[in-house]
Specification:
52 strands
């Protein structure tokens, strides 16, 4: 172990066997380097040794090409709460091997980066009990390249160009749960490339001139309750699949809060989530997941092909034509939760349509002017709207169709697998086929007349019932058609089956 105290105006060179690990700069010690020796660095660790340096004093490199601490073969730097490290180039630069930097004081890269790790590693700025720690820089506060980087911030990371840049992917945790501390700021907040980046934000990530978060190789962003992402664009994830989980606030002052690239991306909207600006799923096949039951507000959302509503309570979802922008198929699939749902696409034009899978509980589903598809689940009330709509049933239930007569092209589709019809489309494609007239009867009482029939329609009440052996035993309700419109099977009928 080597301890340096007093004033070292010509800098410190770490080399064996003169200096031994670990190395400590004592409290009150001052280290400076005015000469061009060893690039003008204040503390220079020669290659071949992973130096472990703890600074309790002041390290200042004033030579134009000098860094505060420069370690050439990896190692560890710990900067105490009352200590400071300043370089004309980098505050701390470590190359050659994986490195670790822990800062409780201040680190400053006057003309370049605050902390620059050239072969991967980790940086921790502050702690849960020390939130005044700061790493600042002319360019990037913390940058890691050569291998994955892992950054944890409880204080402030401030770079004029960027707060953090991970050239080979990695992880970032900003702040702590339940607290608003942790600030990452720069023209760019966090940028990732070369590998996926996982960002967990409890504090604030701010980029007044560009992206709060820009991940160019995919990744996951979790913006927790009370946390804030703010930039011209709040978050952009591209290059590979991305996931954004938001229960805080994401603001895009340029009009876009979140944008994804061409991957198959996921947006999870938790309670308390606020999006100021549009949310664009980009290319690929994208999904919105409601994190908890309630009203899912998708105003400004586009290019998401699937919406998953939450279990555990009633859900409400309203879609407009704007939600279909960027959806290549023109169809959005909604999977309902298990405790009752209200889904409406009443204002959607004929060019677009919904596919809704009802969940448990009582669901009320409303289509628009397009060819919508409804999958009932036992207690489902369906309004098709315009277009040729398809109402599919896999089992008995107390279901209702309110406007079956609104279109002559509407169809009732019965799952062969659910009703054990003993028939198959013979195609294996799931294509709807006309239900044979021999297994259907329509009359004023809704009664079966032969044992070969499976469905009976009451022309007086609009009730469609099922029996596994027709007139041979009791029957069960399938659906009621409001207004009791005409219904028929056979080649020209509205009754179909699917395997």
């Amino acid at each position: 172990m080597t301890t340096f105290s007093g004033s070292h105006t010509t800098g410190i060179v770490l080399k064996t066997p003169i200096v031994t690990n670990p190395v400590t700069i004592a409290s009150g010690a001052y280290v400076n380097n005015f000469s061009p020796s060893y690039s003008g660095d204040a503390v220079y660790g020669k290659s071949g040794t992973a130096w472990n340096v703890t600074n309790n004093g002041t390290i200042l490199a004033t030579y134009p090409t000098g860094s505060g601490i420069d370690l050439r073969s990896g190692g560890r730097v710990t900067n105490a709460a009352t200590a400071s490290i300043t370089g004309r180039v980098d505050g701390v630069t470590i190359g050659g091997a994986i490195a670790t930097v822990t800062n409780l004081g201040t680190i400053d890269g006057v003309n370049h980066n605050g902390v620059d790790l050239g072969a991967g590693g980790s940086v921790t700025n502050g702690s849960t009990s020390s939130t005044t720690a700061q790493i600042s820089a002319q360019e990037i506060a913390v940058t890691v390249h050569g291998a994955a980087g892992h950054v944890t911030n409880f204080g402030t990371l401030a770079g004029q160009n960027a707060g953090i840049y991970l050239f080979a992917g990695g992880t970032v945790t900003n702040g702590k749960s339940g607290a608003s501390t942790g600030l990452i700021t720069g023209s760019m907040g966090i940028q990732g490339a070369g590998g996926a980046v996982t960002v967990t934000n409890f504090g604030t990530i701010s980029a007044p001139s560009a992206y709060a978060i820009l991940l160019n190789a995919g990744g996951i962003v979790t913006n927790s309750a009370g946390a804030r992402l703010s930039g011209i664009v709040g978050a952009l994830i591209q290059g590979s699949a991305g996931t954004v989980i938001n229960s805080g606030t994401i603001t895009g002052s340029g009009g876009t809060a979140v944008r994804f690239g061409a991957g198959n991306d996921v947006l999870i909207v938790d309670p308390g989530a606020v999006f100021t600006g549009k949310v664009n799923g980009g290319g690929g096949t994208n999904k919105v997941v409601e994190g908890s039951h309630g009203t899912l507000n998708v105003t400004g959302f586009s290019a998401f092909e699937t919406i998953q509503l939450a279990n555990g309570g009633a859900d409400s979802l309203t879609l407009t034509s704007a939600n279909f922008a960027g959806v290549a198929s023109g169809r959005i699939t909604i999977n309902d939760g298990n405790s009752g749902n209200t889904v409406s696409a009443a204002t959607v034009p004929s060019s677009d349509a919904i596919i809704v899978h009802a969940g448990g509980g009582t669901d009320t589903l409303t289509g628009g002017a397009g060819a919508d598809i409804f999958y009932a689940d036992g207690k489902t009330k369906m309004t098709g709207g315009g277009g040729a709509n398809r109402f599919t049933f896999a089992d008995i239930g107390t279901n209702t169709i309110t406007d079956f007569a609104a279109s002559s092209s509407n169809m009732i589709v019965l799952r062969d697998s659910g009703f054990n019809l003993g028939i198959d489309d013979g195609m294996g494609t799931g294509s709807a086929q006309h239900l044979a007239a021999s297994v259907f009867v329509a009359n004023s009482t809704g009664s079966f007349t032969t044992t070969g029939q499976r469905f009976a329609y009451n022309k007086t009440t609009g009730a469609l019932r099922y029996s596994h052996d027709g007139s041979g035993s009791a029957s069960s309700a399938v659906v009621v058609l409001s207004g009791h419109p005409s219904l028929s099977a056979g080649a020209s009928g509205q009754m179909f089956f699917i395997s």
